[in-house]
Amino acid sequence: MKLGIFDSGLGGLLMTRAVQAHMPDLDIVYLGDTLRLPYGNRSETSIFEFTKRAIDFLFAQDCALVIIACNTASATALRKLQQEYLPKAHPGRNVLGVIVPTLEAAIDKGFDKLGLIATNYTVNSNVFHEELTKISPDIKFDQQATPLLVPLIENGGDLWVDDVLRHYLAPLKTSGVECLLLGCTHYSLLKDKIKTIVGDGVTLLCQDEIIPAKLENYLARHPEYSDKISRNGLAQFYVSDVTPHYRAAAEKIYGQAIEIEKVEL
Ligand code: DGL
Predict the structure, then answer these.
(1) Which has fewest Cβ within 10 Å: 78, 114, 158, 229?
(2) Strand pairing partners for 7?
(3) Is the peptide bond before 38 cis (omega within 30 degrees of 0)?
(4) pLDDT, tens only, 50-82
(5) Tell me, what DSSP letter sits at residue 255?
(6) Is there an atom of ligand 1 within 6 Å of 150 CB?
(7) Is the pTM of this model over 0.85?
(8) Would residue 179 show up in a list of annotated catalytic residues for this protein?
(9) CA–CA separation, 192 vs 195, rounded Å?
(10) What is the pLDDT of residues 221-247, one digit of tens each?
(11) Integer CA distances (angstroms), 71 to 38, 47, 141, 243, in order
């Protein structure tokens, strides 16, 4: 069996590359729902339905465990999938999200005030803040929706990214945030630009730097999944829509040439 990694688009390739760098032997199946990207401006019902279809596909590809790398999908669908859908539809398999592991990494570092940038849906859901309050209610929290970033990244809008980032980050710069969580798969691509704008006084936490070690730890504690995942260092990459632009973007994000195959979800 394999490890599945799901994202609404191609940003999750960055996390995939990081997981492979950390655990090179794991056999991985990646799915990016490029046909329906961006998820971040859609309704809860739609995001849940898209995510359900995506994990159905990954389980049909013989995945024992799926990481929902997309924060928007994690915010919407994770609990409901784990508690209601999987026990009936895919007993013995599991999905993991990225929100709690990201918060835990920030809490472990001892910050008093966290900031978050994420899609409209993730910010409006308030899931990061709710989960933080459950774990560490004394840590202060501020968040900013940054809905233009994914469309700019996915459509080669480099020329405008700095101006848009400066606009979005201005309130967080003045609110005393010590650590900024990049709560979207795509934002790790902008970490250098974001670092320049927020300055040295703010620590950035990027999920591609957090999740691989968290996953390794999870696998060590859960042999019921980890023993089932084969370890030949193989990777397959699927998307729900493909164009020459997507192929080029996938290679740019992943950092080397990859074969991406179109599938119907
Ligand atoms: N991948 C999504 C996330 O991590 C953002 C992209 C989208 O809006 O679909 O939240």
Answers:
(1) 158
(2) 32
(3) yes
(4) 999 999 999 999 999 999 999 999 999 999 999
(5) S
(6) yes
(7) yes
(8) no
(9) 5
(10) 999 999 999 999 999 999 999 999 889
(11) 12, 11, 17, 25
